[in-house]
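Exam revision sheet. Question 4 asks you to relate a sequence to its structure. Input first:
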Amino acid sequence: MADSANDKLDFSIETLGECKIPSPIELSNEFGDFRANYVRDGSFIRNAISIYGDVEPVVSLDSTNLMEKAGPRKNIYFDPVHVNAAICTCGGLCPGLNDVIRAIVRCLWNRYGVRRINGFRYGYKGFLPEHGFASMPLDPEMVDEIHKIGGTFLGTSRGGGNRVVDIVDCIERQNINQIYIIGGDGTQRGALDIANEVERRHMKVSVIGIPKTVDNDLEFIDRSFGFETAVQKAKDAVSSIHMEAHSQINGIGLVKLMGRESGFIATQTALASHEANFCLIPEVPFDLDGPNGFLHYLEKRLVARGHAVIIVAEGAGQDLLNATGQKDASGNKKLADIGVYLRDQINTYFEKKGIHINQKYIDPGYEIRASVTNANDSVYCERLGNNAVHAAMAGKTKMVVGLVHNKFVNLPIQMVTRKRNLVDPEGSLWRDALDATGQPILMVNNLQTAFERTEAIRNQKH
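Answer key, structure tokens:
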């Protein structure tokens, strides 16, 4: 649906200057010569591609609708001999971090001939002298095998991104002119602040983000790297808990998955596993008690089938719990633990009713985050890293690389971080998840009250 007039889209990509240097990558501008092609300047894809019924589509062929295609240009801004690149990873772990690091280093070194590449350790804190984390020089040999292990080769941390002046002081001291920042929406907002401070000082530094959010909640982007691996690992957890539940008298399997505000992992895991009977996500309110509450339907499921499997996203049901009022180092609101709460409420409910159950609860979150990527995510990370380098070498800045409508594009950081992507409770993905689980469309006793509770949570400052 169209954005409001006060929320106008602008997909323009900022650049440091005119690209006058011929690229060392020898590609082609011709079609039909069996040689890989450069991406031509002025190549775009449309953001708005849907048509709704008999509503005549408004097709804008300008920056409000056109996204710049990613990829290597014929002419570049930076002379590779003078490039001094920096890479850092921030925030929580996610499958694919090492794959992205590896791709950036190899593309800079092998394709462009860049010889000064430094990895800054432990996120933004690696730029702050008081922490004492020296940067490490990177080359293809050093990173060649890191995609085979989980975690991040450079280390990570939360926080520090608000120390913008100190970070840019470090960038200036070390004569860095390209910086690749791998992290989620908070990290990318910090990257934009860094780029703005760089611009204020009239420094020619390309700031490129590679968006990392295992929750898959960045706006416009089809999927974030590591998401498919997370769903695969979560599916394995659900399969195990289903076997436990199915083997017990009134067996209940409860799995808590990632998803602070967006339930994409939980929803897609429910679809992929075909073994979950309930999927609880932040976007859809639910009551525990009452004739239309979750516990009532869980009891009905046990009576009918003798076992049940529940998937709950970590941000689901926060309106039912006491808010912690705390924030982590990244400024994210600390969530109350819905998994433990739900486990205890289920036990109490059936104990009061004198119904024997055998409940198993697992939280595989950290195991999933530390996983090695599956094949599809590994390919995606490689291509993200390569396209990030192509953008930086062309002097682009204040942007991230992402996949939109299955095409790699350059997107302004400001656009992808303006709000979170959410599962649409009225959309086809959630509809299909309801078909997969067989759960009621809504498990609430009073829709208006449930809506107000959910909106109150969403409107809180994160």
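Marking note for examiners. The chain has 13 helices and 17 strands.
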